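>> received
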Amino acid sequence: MRPLIILSTALMLALSVTSVEARETKTASLHKAGAKLSRAAQGKIVNRNNVRQHLGARQPVQASRHKLNSGSNSRVVERARELIGLPYRFGGSTVASGFDCSGLLVYLFRTEAGMKLPRTTGEMIDSDSLRIHRDELRPGDAVFFNRNGRGNVSHVGLYIGNNQFIHAPSTGGRIRQDSLDNRYWERSFTTARRFNG
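>> returned
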């Protein structure tokens, strides 16, 4: 009976030693991994997983901002196309009331690009927007005109590409698309501004 007790005690002792060694090995591995991370942090070695998470948190903000600038101009142009045919209305700046020339641009940039433009053509020209030469025009730029090349700037339209622009022309008229190559508009063109991007 005594040998049986000794044998079972030896067996229990062997099992518990194996279990303790396994725990110590696991703990040592964790300590080593922690020490490596600590040394990496001290040596300013960057953990790539952390970088991906950090960039992933910041990247969408920058990307969406970039998309807003480039994509919002195309939305402005598309919405302007949809408004062709609506009546001109002096002082108008809504779909319900109709639009005057500057009211049309104010509406388009507010609703499609989330931007607040000055209300009048003179204020738009005097704003801190980017001055654009005619050969640098891009869709979404504002094009300004006077009357047959005389007097102050009194009209504005939205450039949509291919020497075309959309504007609310005058009392009794409707929003329409015209060409900068047309003799009247070519003579009347004075300047352009870029409000977005």
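>> Residues 72-194 form a domain with the endopeptidase fold (from Nostoc punctiforme) fold (CATH 3.90.1720.10).
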